[in-house]
Amino acid sequence: MVTIQGKGVSTGVAIGPLYFYRRVSGNIRRYTVEDTEAEWRRFKEAQGTAIEQLGALAEKAREEAGDDAALLFETHQMMAEDLDFEEAIQDLIKEQALNAEAAVTDTSVQFAEMFANMDDEYMQARAADVKDVSRRILSILQGAQEGGIDSPVPVILAADDLAPSETVQLDKSKILGFVTAGGSSSSHTAILARTMGIPAIIGVGDALKPEMEGREVILDGGTGEVVVEADALVRDAMLKKREEQLELKRLLESLKGQENVTLDGQKVKVYCNIGSPDDIAAVKNNDGGGVGLFRSEFLYLKCDDYPDEETQFQAYREALSAMEGKMVIIRTLDIGADKQIEYFHLDKEENPAMGMRALRICLTRPEIFRTQLRALYRASAYGKLGIMFPMVTSLWEVQECKRACQAVVQELKDEGIPYDQDVQIGIMVETPAAVTMSDQLARYVDFFSIGTNDLTQYTLACDRQSSVLGKFFDPHHPAVLRAIKTVTDNAHRYGKWVGICGELAADLEMTETFLAIGVDELSVSPSAVLPLRNAIRKTDVSKIRKSVMADLLFP
Ligand code: PEP
Ligand code: MG
Question: What 3-state class would DSSP assign to 14?
Answer without folding.
Answer: strand
